[in-house]
Amino acid sequence: MHKVFSSLITIVALAAPVAPAAMAQSLLSEPQVKSPVVSLEGLGQSTILSTRPSEALAAALTRDPTLTAFEQSKSTLRFEGEDDVVNLTFLLDPRSVAAGGDLVLAYRNAVSVMPETSVVSVMVNGAPVGNFPVRSPSGFSTQTIAVPTSTLRAGVNEVQLRAVQQHRVDCSMEATYELWTELDEQTSGFRPHSAQGSNGFASLRKVGRDARGLTDLRLVLPRGSGAAALNRAAPMVQTLALALNRDDISVTVAETAGTGPGIDLLVASDDDQASLSVIRSDTPHGLSLAPGGDPLRHTVVLRASNAREIPNLVLNAVQGPLKPVFDSGIRAQRSGEIRAEASSVYTLADAGYVPAPFTGRLFRTRFDMVMPADFYPAEYATLDLALHGATSPGLKPTSQLLVRVNDQIVKSLPMRDTGGEVFSGRKLELPLRAFRPGRNQIELLAELERPADDACVFAERDDSVPRFILLDTTEIRVPALARVARLPELAALAGSAYPYAGTNAVNVHVLQPDAGSISTALTVLAKMSNSAKTPLLAQFNFGPPKAGAEGNALVVASRQATDELARLGPNRFPALSGQIDFAPALESADPIVTSAINLPTVATPLAVTSDPSALLEAFRQTTRDQPGGNTFSDGLSVKLDELYQSFRQWLNYRSSADQLAPAEPARKAVLTQRPNVSGDGVVTWLTADTAFEMREVAQMLSSPAVWNRIEGESVVFDLDANTIRSTKPEAYFAHKLSDYGPGNLRRIAAAWFSDHFRIYVVLVIALMAVFAIWLGRLVPGAGVRSDQ
After folding, report:
1. Cis omega (within 30 of 0) on the bond before 128?
2. Which of 601, 610, 709 is nearest to 661 (CA)?
3. N or C: which terminal CB in the chain sees fewer CB atoms within 10 Å?
4. 215 by DSSP, 3-state: which?
5. How far is CA 192 from the centre of its chain?
6. Strands 189-192 and 101-109, bridge-based pairing
């Protein structure tokens, strides 16, 4: 009880109030049929050049130890289209500010970019410091830009990079999607002219990234450690992840310190002699920084007199030396992100958008909107976009503005007036069904072609005359929302760690205590705490959940362990070792696909599943089209069901391809969420064939390009193709209803009927029939003349 209470105090201290690439396709015709598979290639990695692994290794070997890394992950270090902006931040101590330094930008670009006219302009803290041409299609080239000392400041420095790119030979709208330039996250940053002074714990935010492009956070534990050591370290792991203010943290567990860029975390308690073996005997009590042997690496040590003291030491650090780190990082407003609340109005300025006249053919800007975890998306209201902007004369009448939400086009505004238009609050209604609880990406695109573009003569192009401007006073109006939490929904977990964030402890079960599975569990825990912006009360256990256990749980297991659990049950599951297995997990994957407990199956063969509901569904699928016994009513029922499914796909922004059973990956991992059998809470399962593949999926989840895209009931990770595929549940269950007001209940009812419109149609027809019967009985007896 004391541990939970102390951890709760830590959560309250950290939970202070806080003030965030669209797929290339032509927009001139019907949108292409989009597969439910989301490829991660191109999100921070070139899809044309294939030299990234070798270049990453070379960068790791020649890394500059004096380079201060940018805080943003590699998925954000990419320019797309004709005009794009990337905002970056880095930290400096007072000594480095006084000495000045250089901005180092290693970049490469698509071969289609015209080097004569394409340029990247650089601003630091609002002041221009230089520019350079874009001309490096064959590999990374490094540009060094001197930054005046008067421009720099102690603490967080902001860098704005704007890339203006033109195509070499093609003037079509589709060609703009071939334009890209990306930065190398490992060799880009700020290089001070003098050795950096000690800046306390803020110096941790300067750490570079490893060869995988991730921020490596390693928990060092002595051999023989068990679940108790993990429970002691879990609050500090999450606190350190929050202090770093990065969304690409990868947590690993090992018995030795790491090498290369990263942070080693050591947690020791005087009442545990084994834990003292990983720290120096003269280490002071409390949180401290220790010298390390690798100049690219930092070491953080937390030493306590006993295990019960650790939460209070973490709290003292949060309120003391870590407070300025939190205030300037995780608690500060994040550029490009709006955390939406019901019945609120925001502007593009709140998302960090800076207006500027646009001279190209395809304007685009994007930002993230984080919706509440208990938001019910349905057709009961619209999120309105009040547009403020203008177009110039001379555009083609085919010009239009499009709004994308989560890679789906949900609204278009034709701009047919060739004489130019001015938009003063022009309202675009965005359907709430296109959004989801948690993080949503909104993208505004404007197609702006002129007749002269058809000639494609670059010497005659006049880019001095702007074609479009979008003002930052454009409003995003969030309506009153139906507030009821629906599960399963992995998007809510990724967006705000729902339903795991709160005062209730989260039970983390690792079925096999190998280092790979434990590293994956800690990585997911760190990602959830970053989403919630506060640590979670986590309790680690080795083995499966007990039968009838209540509350929310996270289970990490290999497929072999889940098969054994399905066969034996939790009560007969064999006892596990209480110690962490640090042996490298290099075993090969089992090619045989077997059953999994409580996991959804996609196109599961009838002979290999042991789930009764899956067997029944597989049987129905295999016997549905068998000849014989079909009547006219059966055929009509099938046709009506097909029409219903087609309408439902359109209503939920799904394509017909989403319903096709894709081929199962040869090596995969599955993240799924199911209601707890006790009826209280949910259980989230993460399974892979082997512990080695568990580490691979942990690396994928560490990337925000993956974490921000998980949604629905289950996500399948193709470890070979580096893709993910989400599956939405057929039915939800209400997890929590906090507002019982009539307004919220009315919106929930309207939302429910929009999801179950067949019941709505039947109810309307029934009411019409009742009204007709009543009217038929009333009219004959009304107004009849009588001769009496």
Report:
1. no
2. 601
3. C
4. strand
5. 33
6. antiparallel
Q: Please tell me the predicted confidence (pLDDT) of residue 572.
A: 73
Q: In terms of Cα–Cα distance, which of 460, 455, 520 is closest to 696?
A: 520
Q: What is the mean pLDDT of the chain?
A: 80
**Hunting for tokens 């009560």 — which residue is that?**
571
Closest by Cα among 714, 734, 679 to 552: 679
Are residues 712 and 488 in contact, defined by beta-carbon separation less than 8 angstroms?
yes
Residue 373 half-sphere exposure toward CB, CA atoms < 13 A: 22
Q: Measured between alpha carbons, how far is 130 from 337 in angstroms, rounded to an integer?
A: 27
- Highest-scoring range by mean pLDDT, 19-28, 492-501, 592-601: 492-501
Given CA atoms 206, 211, 213, 216 in this order, what sign does their dihedral have?
negative
Question: What distance in Å separates the CA atoms of residue 45 and residue 55, rounded to the nearest whole number?
Answer: 12
Count Cα atoms within 13 angstroms, Cβ side, for 674. Answer: 15
Contact 90, 154 (CB under 8 A): no
Query: What pLDDT is attached to residue 571?
Result: 73
DSSP SS3 for 635? helix
Q: CA 66: distance to chain centroid?
A: 31
Pairwise CA distance, residues 239 & 522, whole Å: 12
Token couple for 702: 């560490």
SS3 430: strand
Token pair recorded at residue 727: 């599956």
CB-based contact 145:101 (threshold 8 Å)? no
Closest by CA position to 715, among listed 723, 566, 509, 371: 723
User: Omega before 488 cis (within 30°)?
Assistant: yes
Instruction: Tell me the angle at which helices 691-702 and 515-532 cross, rounded to the nearest 10 degrees.
Output: 20
- Helices vs strands, H then E, count in the chain: 15, 35
How far does CA 137 lie from the centroid of its chain?
Answer: 29
Looking up tokens 């055929």 gives: 635
- Is residue 360 scored above 80 in pLDDT? yes
Quick check: 147 and 113 in contact, CB under 8 A? no
3-state SS, residue 238 = helix
Separation CA 82–CA 620 (nearest Å): 51
With the C-alpha atoms ordered 369, 425, 355, 468, is the resulting torsion angle positive or negative? Answer: positive
Could you give the CA distance from residue 639 to residue 646 in angstroms, rounded to a whole number?
Answer: 11
Strand-pair category, 553-558 with 506-510: parallel
Residues 6+ apart with CB under 8 A from 564: 573, 574
- Taking the C-alpha atoms of residue 638 and residue 83, their distance in angstroms, rounded to an integer, is 50
Handedness of CA 724, 729, 734, 739 (dihedral sign): positive
- Average pLDDT on 610-637 reads 46
Residue 650: φ, ψ to 5°: -65, -40
Q: 668: closest CA among 697, 709, 691, 641?
A: 697
Tell me the percentage of the chain whose pLDDT exceeds 90. Answer: 46
Q: What tokens does 744 get? A: 């919220």
> Do the beta carbons of residue 452 and residue 347 sit within 8 Å?
no
Residue with tokens 């001139």: 28
Half-sphere exposure of 511 (CA within 13 A, CB side): 28
Element holding 571 (H helix, E strand): none
Q: What is the pTM of this model?
A: 0.80
Residue 281: Cβ-neighbour burial (10 angstroms; 0-12, 13-18, 19+): exposed
> What is the rounded distance in angstroms from the CA atom of residue 70 to the CA atom of residue 89?
6
Dihedral sign (CA 675, 679, 681, 686):
negative
Q: Which residues pair with 386 in a beta bridge?
A: 427, 475
Which secondary structure element, helix H or strand E, spans residue 71, and what is its range? none
Phi-psi category of residue 445: left, alpha or beta, with phi > 0 → left and psi -120 to 50 → alpha? beta
For residue 479, is pLDDT > 90?
yes
3-state class of 480 per DSSP?
A: coil
Asked if pLDDT for residue 557 goes beyond 60, the answer is yes
pLDDT of residue 774: 79
